[in-house]
Design goal:
The protein has 537 residues and is of the alpha/beta class. The chain has 15 helices and 26 strands. The chain has an 11-stranded mixed beta sheet, sandwiched between helices. It has a 4-stranded parallel beta sheet with strand order 4-3-5-6, with helices on both faces. Helix 9 links the parallel strand 11 and strand 12. Helix 2 packs across helix 3 and helix 4 crosses helix 5.
């Protein structure tokens, strides 16, 4: 058995004096002023003490604990302590609004929520009782129901992560202890170029409520008995100083980051680092070669989904990277795949089609998510025909490499976040100014894609910049800022079928054509202002 806690305990016993967490001074984190380093042994002591507090409060297998602690040291203390007892974790995105959290709570049913003080109010607004909300320094509330055990197994839930679907509401992926152990092993053994135990320093600016940061960076560092640098957010102005000061050997990225870093003025920091490679996904072809030449860092592109975990993955680490061609790498040897055309038949070699995946062997779901919680129908649909349907359209090259083409799902992929268009449409449709609406992705040089809303105004409302801002502001009450439209185009009608269903293909084409229309309102700067405004609430 190898739960995340057991992996960590083995590392702590093996190398207690090795630095586990490193927070460089250059990152200017308010909880690590002057920098902070925590060894495996020190973390193990804190985890053991916190584990006993949870045990005394009755927490164990069968319970769910919501966490909103950013990437602070406290997150890792509580994650490992809870995992030691078999408690499933529901990590919260701090950008979510009360309505969004309320939906997640209705599915995951957390017993309590451990949150930083600034997040307590919105968690309370989402419906969790005040006595069930506590902070890192507070007494742990007693569990509301008895635990079945005080130690989890491989199959028990480790974390509940919500991912965007196409039906309007995010789905809750149940991710087991085995899922995370398998993902971490893939990361260190196949996903990345050769990594040396005890010698790597892995820096990530990605949040621990994503499987990448938690499963790859954090647990990958644990398996390697190496150091993790978990920054809360990506800051271009502090990036290279943080990379250099931490002596990072590996950095993680999303496609938006190379674009932003390339806009910085050239400086001596461009190559003043120890980074051997960067690991990530979604780099724009226009930026990949320029980034690698300027900063002398190879970008290793990879592919996986929250649902697939380490059961089905690709990476360019194992062969030709096909720079600037949207290459997502080569299939993991332990997976099977099909590339299928719209009629369900295998696509002609080299032609694009939807990627279907599964694990080799008798258990085709090995390493994948366990299920969509409380949604057996969606789980069965995702596994139709014995294959997991990714919704991603790819093609394969002569050497077996995969190249990303498009997304079949109705999502906007903005700065690494999956945004369900139907979820955004549902919020906008309920605004007084809106008679009808359709949402689609449009290209964005920095963020990959941005949210475009095509709005038919209700009678009595006139088109213009002010009403576009009013719509964006009103939607921000129920949507995280990244889901708020970055563009609004006012139209007189929307493409619909005879049964009044939106015609998604025509809508995507319409959105792209409207992007250059003089009447389309660019709200990207205003959207940034909304983020700052909601962060202060």
């Amino acid at each position: 058995m190898s739960t995340p806690y057991q992996l960590f305990q083995a590392a702590a016993q093996d190398r207690p004096d090795q630095t586990f967490l490193l927070f460089p001074e250059a990152a200017k984190l308010d909880y690590a002023v002057g920098g902070l380093a925590i060894t495996y042994g020190q973390m193990a002591d804190q985890v053991a003490a916190q584990r006993e507090k949870y045990r005394a409060a009755g927490f164990g297998v069968g319970h769910v604990m919501a966490l909103s602690l950013d990437n602070r040291p406290e997150f890792f203390v509580h994650f490992f302590a809870l995992n030691a007892l078999g408690v499933a974790m529901l990590p919260l995105n701090p950008d979510l609004r009360a309505d969004e959290l309320s939906f997640q709570f209705s599915i995951a049913e957390p017993d309590a929520a451990l949150v930083l003080e600034r997040y307590a109010a919105v968690v309370g607004e989402a419906g969790l009782a005040p006595e069930r909300i506590f902070g890192p320094d507070d007494v742990v509330p007693n569990a509301t129901a008895p635990a079945t055990l005080f130690e989890g197994t491989d199959a028990d839930p480790c974390a509940l992560l919500f991912t965007s679907g196409t039906t309007g509401k995010p789905k809750c992926c149940v991710l087991s202890n085995f899922y995370f152990a398998e993902l971490a092993r893939w990361y260190v053994e196949d996903g990345c170029p050769d990594m040396e135990p005890g010698k790597e320093t892995i820096l990530t600016p990605l949040p621990m409520f994503h499987m990448n940061a938690l499963g790859c960076s954090a647990l990958g560092a644990v398996i390697l008995r190496s150091t993790l640098v978990p920054l809360d957010r990506f800051s271009a102005s502090r990036w290279w100083a943080s990379v250099a000061q931490s002596r990072a050997t590996v950095v993680h990225y999303l496609g938006v980051m190379p674009a932003i870093l390339l806009k910085l003025a050239p400086s001596e920091n461009d190559r003043g680092h120890n980074v051997r490679f960067a690991f990530g996904a979604g780099v724009d072809p226009m930026h990949q070669q320029a980034f690698e030449e300027r900063f002398a860092i190879p970008l290793v592109e990879a592919w996986a989904m929250t649902e697939t975990g380490g059961g089905a993955t690709t990476s360019t680490a194992g062969g030709e990277r096909h720079i600037a061609q949207r290459c997502i790498g080569y299939p993991h040897p332990a997976m099977e795949f099909r590339i299928v055309a719209d009629d369900g038949a295998d696509a002609v070699a080299g032609e694009p089609g939807e990627l279907l995946v599964r694990a080799k062997g008798e258990d085709h779901r090995r390493g994948f998510f366990t299920e969509y919680l409380k949604d057996a129908k969606s789980t069965d649909e995702a596994w139709a025909g014995g294959w997991f349907h990714t919704g991603d359209v790819v093609r394969s090259g002569p050497d077996g490499a995969f190249f990303f083409v498009d997304r079949k799902k109705n999502i906007v992929r903005r700065s690494g976040e999956n945004i369900a268009v139907v979820e955004v449409e549902g919020v906008l449709q309920n605004l007084a100014q809106v008679a009808a609406v359709a949402v689609a992705p449009v290209p964005d040089d920095i963020r990959g894609e941005e949210v475009m809303a095509m709005v038919v105004l209700a009678e009595g409302n006139g088109a213009g910049a002010q009403i576009a801002q009013d719509i964006a502001l009103a939607s921000s009450d129920r949507l995280a800022y990244h889901k708020v439209p970055g563009y609004i185009a006012f139209v007189t009608k929307l493409p619909v079928t005879a049964t009044q269903k939106l015609q998604r293909g025509e809508i995507k084409a319409l959105a792209k054509s409207l992007l250059a229309d003089v009447g389309t309102i660019d709200l990207r700067d205003y959207k940034g202002q909304l983020r700052k405004l909601t962060a202060k609430v």
